[in-house]
Amino acid sequence: MVGTKITINGKKIGKLLDLIIIEKDKVAEATHIVVSRPFGYPSLMVPWDNVSSFDEMNINISLNNVEKFACKIPEGFILLKDYVLDKKIQDIEGIDVKVVYDIKMVIRRNKLYVTDVDPSENALFRRLGLEKFLNLIYRKYDKSKNMLIPWFYVQALPPNIGSFTGDVKLNILKEKLNYLPPVDIAEILE
């Protein structure tokens, strides 16, 4: 979704730079989108309530005064792409598991939730736009190798996490990752 065109009434105003999330009750919900604009214009921090459509091709927002939302991101906000993507994942004992290459999200009742993080190599190829190339090489590209880790197992992000510092920590041991109970996954999606 990063880089997706942002429009107001069909007119392009910028691209999706990041999502701001809040964590509550083991669930991460997007509260704002961050819109990068052409050189010389400050980024916009638009509340999720102003997003009227959200898909891979276009994100449409409804704003009366665009400049009212122009600002620098205040400290303390959690930026999903900046603070989670490409971070090392560590299990409960601090042992490195992998790196977060992709993030799965779902829209429920007009709210955007983060459901899983994906540290698989397939996610890396997908993110780099090489999924079709991978399909050509391996004919039957095995999507079952996606190793989705439910957000439920992600510990609350530390206050010192930043673009270049901090790691994503899990509430589970590395050995148990392959045996995540489907009941937990269903509970998270509910």
What multimeric state do the chains show? single chain
Shape call: globular
**Class by SSE composition:** mainly beta
User: Termini distance?
Assistant: 23 Å
Query: SSE order in H/E notation?
Result: EEEEEEEHEEEEHHEEH
The CATH homologous superfamily of the largest domain corresponds to PRC-barrel domain
Q: From the coordinates shown, what is the CATH architecture of the largest domain?
A: Roll
The level 1 CATH classification of the largest domain is Mainly Beta
Labels describing this entry:
4 helices; mainly beta; SH3 type barrels; ten-stranded mixed beta sheet; 190 residues; single chain; 2 domains
Description:
The protein has 190 residues and is mainly β. The chain folds into 2 domains: 65 residues, SH3 type barrels; 106 residues, Roll (SH3 type barrels), CATH 2.30.30.240. 14% of the residues lie in helices and 36% in strands. The protein has 4 helices and 13 strands. The strands form 2 sheets. Strands 1, 2, 3, 4, 5, 6, 7, 10, 11 and 12 form a 10-stranded mixed β-sheet that branches. Strand 2 and strand 3 form a beta hairpin.
